[in-house]
Design goal:
2 domains, five-stranded parallel beta sheet, 21 strands, globular
Length: 504
């Protein structure tokens, strides 16, 4: 049966509305009215989250794991309705949304098994040494403890996996932190049905209602109030550099500054080394274009730049431009994102030294691919060419020598990923590039493409600024739970007083 959103916020177990409404702007299907968020609702949600904190932080790992599993079940139970409303609101194809739902419930279940295993607590124990001279040593135990209520900003480009019940929410709940989500106005109906699933799971698990709240957007004050609320202790965010930086600065300016775990974009450079290009330039170029244009290029790991020897550039450009011919217009997530893409494309096309390799024409809410070429010297001079254009647009940087390739590598700002395409004979250059790239990126990969982020124990999805605002953290994979935990030492505290988590 079709899902019709009621348009309300979920605040501590109650569906509520304010006096004002905004309308969703679906790519297809009917628009729906949603209640606009307010500063007062943020306050209610944050207070309820703080009220819930003590009991939620004191739950056993098994109780929280059961909650995560229940959320996954409730999402699966609504699968058809989620795909339908999600596809209407975002324009993403049904198959992509089905895959993203699988990833979302997979993340929830992964965190459930992760906390059941208990290793994430990094529990340490230095037993007392009462006879030690000149002073006895006390008994000291270390445990990771939840930090308090966490705010999560839903991302426009992953309406499920990085939104209401996405990786940030799963990690925070697994850690024992209540969550207040600021929904993305690009997919409020999708957010609502996922909030219904979390609400149903919370009731099943008999947890405090303040454990989860969803506030819809429609008003910039909501996001600002969320990060400034004194009871919020950390923020998870995926979005634009400008928006993320503004919210990060607000977090830093608070009387009590809090961590802002923002993921703000990346051009994900690829370095095409000479022997690999000689052996399989065609295949690399085709793979690059497939990765670039997948999902209208709306991935944070989209490979927007490749670097190649000028003498080998024709090998790459011939195959790349041929591959692009088959790519038609794709609907973008929002009109705002499409407008930003069109502006970004025009700015790149007009930049000094930039040569158009593949031109196209897109209008309104669609994206078509563009491919440009620029010399390393022109690229190095122009910071605009270092920035992400969110969509299927790529720039090929040509270098004269391998040393120039190292110079270009050093000039990149922080990245989510960096890729090497190399063969055995490229090893010497690869050995020089790797130490440079590991200082630039959270993930360095060889002979592959950065889109498609595996959700696993060893994944890092983060990197130096501006890829993320916190280079020590990841927003994907089990390590992401560490963002919402704080180590506490318990000195001579009787075992009977320690948190449940202390017992394995
Ligand atoms: P965005 O504009 O940064 O918005 C993300 C969230 O932050 C939204 O909830 C937004 O609220 C809120 N927000 C942004 N600026 C704010 C401010 N100054 N004060 C309070 N709240 C603020 O990102 P977007 O809407 O998803 O997309 C816009 C652009 O972001 C894209 O064109 C693309 O360049 C980039 N983007 C990058 C990635 C990535 O993975 N790197 C992902 C998505 C988007 P409202 O809904 O009220 O505006």
């Amino acid at each position: 049966m079709a899902f019709t959103p009621h348009g309300q916020h979920l605040i501590a177990g109650h569906w509520v509305r304010t006096d004002q409404s905004f309308f969703s702007e679906p790519a297809h299907g009917p628009a729906h009215a949603f209640s606009v968020g307010s500063v007062a609702l943020v306050d209610q949600a944050a207070r309820a989250a703080e009220d819930a904190f003590d009991s939620f932080a004191a739950t056993s790992r098994e109780q929280r794991a059961a909650f995560l599993d229940a959320i996954a079940e409730e999402i699966d139970a609504r699968s058809e309705a989620i795909t339908e409303i999600g596809s209407q609101e975002t324009g993403l194809p049904a198959a992509r949304l089905q895959g993203e739902r699988g990833r979302t419930v997979g993340q929830l279940r992964l965190f459930a098994s992760h906390i059941r295993a208990g290793d994430y607590l990094d529990a340490r124990h230095d037993p007392a040494l009462p006879d030690r001279q000149p002073l006895p040593r006390p008994d000291i135990r270390l445990l990771q403890r939840p930090i308090g209520p966490v705010a999560v900003f839903g991302a426009s480009n992953f309406p499920l996996a990085f939104s209401v019940a996405g990786g940030d929410t799963a990690a925070a709940l697994a850690a024992g932190c209540p969550v207040v989500v600021k929904g993305h106005s690009a997919h409020p109906g999708t957010g609502e049905i996922i909030a219904e699933a979390i609400h149903a799971a919370r009731l099943r698990c008999d947890l405090h209602p303040g454990v989860f709240s969803l506030i819809q957007g429609g008003n910039r004050e909501v996001g600002q109030a969320v990060v400034q609320h004194p009871l919020i202790k950390a923020v998870g965010f995926t979005g634009s550099l400008a928006g993320g930086r503004a919210l990060f600065d607000l977090c830093a300016q608070r009387p009590e500054p809090i961590p802002f775990f923002g993921e703000l974009g990346s051009v994900n450079p690829m370095f095409l080394l000479p022997a690999a290009v000689d052996a399989r330039g065609d295949e690399i170029a085709r793979g690059w274009m497939a990765s670039l244009t997948m999902g209208a290029g709306q991935f944070c790991t989209n490979p927007g730049i490749a670097v190649v020897l000028a003498s080998q550039a024709p090998l790459i450009t011939a195959a790349a431009t041929a591959a692009l011919v088959a790519i038609g217009p794709q609907v973008m997530l929002t009109e705002g994102i499409a407008a930003a893409y069109h502006r970004g494309q025009q700015a790149i096309a007009a930049a000094p030294g930039v040569q158009t390799l593949y031109d196209s024409h897109c209008e309104q809410r669609t994206a078509t691919p563009y491919l440009y070429q620029v010399s390393a010297s022109d690229w190095l001079k122009n910071p605009l060419l270092h920035e992400e254009v969110f969509g299927p647009l790529a720039v090929l940087i040509t270098v004269r020598t391998s040393d120039d390739m190292l110079t270009v590598a050093r000039a990149f700002s922080g990245q989510l990923t960096a890729t090497l395409h190399l063969d055995e004979e490229d090893s010497a250059l690869g050995r020089q590039l790797l130490p440079i790239l590991e200082r630039k990126a959270g993930r360095v990969l060889a002979n592959g493409f950065p889109t498609g982020v595996e959700v696993c124990d060893a994944m890092v999805h983060g990197g130096p600024y501006p890829a993320s605002t916190n280079f020590g953290a990841t927003s994907v994979g089990t390590l992401s739970i560490r963002r919402f935990l704080r180590p506490v030492s318990y000195q001579n505290i009787p075992a009977s007083l320690l948190p449940q988590d202390a017992g394995k």
